[in-house]
Amino acid sequence: MLHKPLSLACAPLIRAALLSAALVHLPALPALANPQAIAPGEQVLAEKERITAFQAGVAAYDAGDYTRAYEIWLPLAKLGDLAAQRNVGHLLRLGRGTAQDLPRALYFYERAADAGLNAAALNAGTLLLGAEGIERDTEDAAGYFMQAAQDGYPEALYQLALLTEAGDGTGKDPAKADRLMRLAAFLGHEKARARIGLETRLDEVRAPSNAG
C-alpha cells in the first residue's frame, strides 16, 4: 500500500517492520541537477513527465508487476527523486522485480535519507543494525533513527531508546532512553508498551521491600 508508514502490528520485529514498510509517494519531485541550463517551460514539461513516469511505477507496483515498477523507478532514483530512491530500496530489499541486494538497498535508502526523506532514514537505520551483508554500524543507525523520530515513527523511537539505554552508537542516557521508550509506547509500539508495562510491574513488586 502507499502513503502509510510502518504497520504497528509488525513494528516489534525489525525485519517484519521493514517488510510492512510502505512505499513513499511524493506529489512533488526534486529539481533537476542543473536547472539553469533548461528553460522554465522545459523544466515544467520535464517535471510533469517525471511525475507521470513515477505514477506509472505506482500503477505497475499495485498491479503486481514489480519488474516494471523497478524499471520505471530506477532511472528516476538515479536522477535524485527521493520517493523513487526509497521505492527502489524497498524493491531491492525484498527482491521484488529484481534480485535481492541489501547493501544496494541501503545505498538508495541512505541517498534519500541524507536528502531529507525521514521515512528512508528509518529503513537505513534498521539495515545498519546488522542486516545480512551489511556491517553493523550503530552510530550511523542512531543518527538515522534520530532523523526518523522527527516524524514520530514509533519504531525509530523504540530502536533509539534501546541504543541510548545501552550507550551503543550514542551517549548512554537512561533517563532519555526511558522518555523515548514511553513515547514509542504512547504512539502504539507494542514492544515498547510491553517493556514499559513490565518495568511498571517490577517497580510495584519492589516497592514493598524498598519501603520496609
Automatic annotation (TrEMBL):
- Taxonomic superkingdom: Bacteria
Q: Enumerate the SMART domains for this protein.
A: SEL1 (SM00671)
Secretion signal span? 1-33
SUPFAM superfamilies hit by this protein: HCP-like (SSF81901)
Entry keywords, A to Z: Signal
PANTHER family, per database record: ERAD-ASSOCIATED E3 UBIQUITIN-PROTEIN LIGASE COMPONENT HRD3, SEL-1-LIKE PROTEIN
Identify this protein by name: Sel1 domain-containing protein
Q: Which organism is it from?
A: Tepidicaulis marinus
